[in-house]
Amino acid sequence: MRVIRAALAAITLIGGTVLVTATPANADPCGTVRNPVIDGARAHWKISCTHNHVRVAGWVEDTRRDAMCARVTIETDNKHDWPQACGKGKRVTFDKRRVDIEGKGAIVKLQLVY
């Protein structure tokens, strides 16, 4: 079993670090609230907008004992952020504010990464 896990981990690292994504790649509009759960991670966030700015606030939690971290990827027109929690039970809060002149909102995804 350990050999199989090691082989899968090696294949994953070669193929890329992102294994699981919980949300689509389309921008969520202002006012969106999400509570995604994937095997090994969970999160909560709210997207709000005021005066040409977008704000994404919430938390991300690692829920499985393994070598992976739970990560929330936040993409706006001018910035990318990656708050992450590593270690079972670890929860990290975040509050990111970015310029959003066109009012597009943000692309926010929950992922597991090495």
Question: What do these coordinates show?
Answer:
The protein is mainly beta. 12% of the residues lie in helices and 49% in strands. The strands form 2 sheets. Strands 1, 6, 7, 8 and 10 form a 5-stranded antiparallel sheet that branches. Strand 6 and strand 7 (79-81) form a beta hairpin. The chain is elongated and about 40 Å long.
SSE layout and pairing:
Blueprint: H1 2-15, E1 20-21, E2 33-34, E3 37-38, E4 41-50, E5 53-62, E6 69-76, E7 79-81, E8 84-86, E9 91-99, E10 107-113
Antiparallel strand pairs: 1-10, 2-4, 3-4, 4-5, 5-9, 6-7, 6-8, 6-10
Question: Tally the helices: what do you get?
Answer: 1
Based on Cα principal axes, name the global outline. elongated
Biggest beta sheet attributes? 5 strands, antiparallel
Instruction: Give the SSE order as H and E letters.
Output: HEEEEEEEEEE
N-C termini distance? 19 Å
Number of strands: 10
Assign the structural class, choosing from mainly alpha, mainly beta, alpha/beta, alpha+beta, or little secondary structure.
mainly beta
Q: Which stretches are low in confidence, meaning pLDDT under 50 for 5 or more residues running? A: 1-19
Q: Which value, in Å, is the CA radius of gyration?
A: 15 Å
| Helical amount | 10-25%
Overall pLDDT score: 83
* SS strand fraction: over 45%
